[in-house]
């Protein structure tokens, strides 16, 4: 079983985490799979470098651009059509696209798991197993590389979201 997948499914089931992930996706342009991966690595004591974040991004970038993002856009378009045309019986189509998007995200997490299993890390393991600090540092470093899609106060937002991930990743 894919331990990154298990972690992602487990932590994402908490509504505050799901909301935070979607907020970061919509405002910061964050990739939820990458965000959950840097949290997972931090939880396991790995505090990442900027170069390692870049390697993680490049691992799934093509798949995300060609598969996950088009499915997400299509899902959102179908949802808007359903909401604007109540008589349209398209919920089964919406559910199938949503399932395909989730499967595409599973593939991304699988790619990230395979990469992390074979990566020769340059970063160090967190000293004294201060995994909470590694989680927070990884989130901050990853989000600093995202392209904001809306006006936000990143420093405050990152601190609040990092604390959420630390709370729910125990």
Give a brief description.
The chain has 7 helices and no strands. By secondary structure, the protein is mostly helical.
List the helices and strands and how they pair.
Layout: H1 3-12, H2 15-28, H3 32-43, H4 50-84, H5 91-118, H6 131-144, H7 154-168
Helix pairs in contact: 1-5, 2-7, 3-6, 4-5, 6-7
Number of strands: 0
Please state the overall shape, judged from the principal axes of the Cα atoms. globular
Strand content: under 5%
Helix content: over 70%
Low-confidence stretches: none
The ordered H/E elements are HHHHHHH
- Derived from helix and strand composition plus strand pairing, the structural class reads mainly alpha
Calculate the mean pLDDT score and round it: 87
Query: Major sheet: size, sense and barrel closure?
Result: none
CA(first)-CA(last) distance: 20 Å
Describe this structure in words.
The mean pLDDT is 87. 75% of the residues lie in helices and 0% in strands. The two termini are 20 Å apart. The protein has one domain. With 170 residues, it is mainly α. It contains seven helices and no strands.
Task: For this entry, give a set of tags.
about 170 residues; mainly alpha; 7 helices
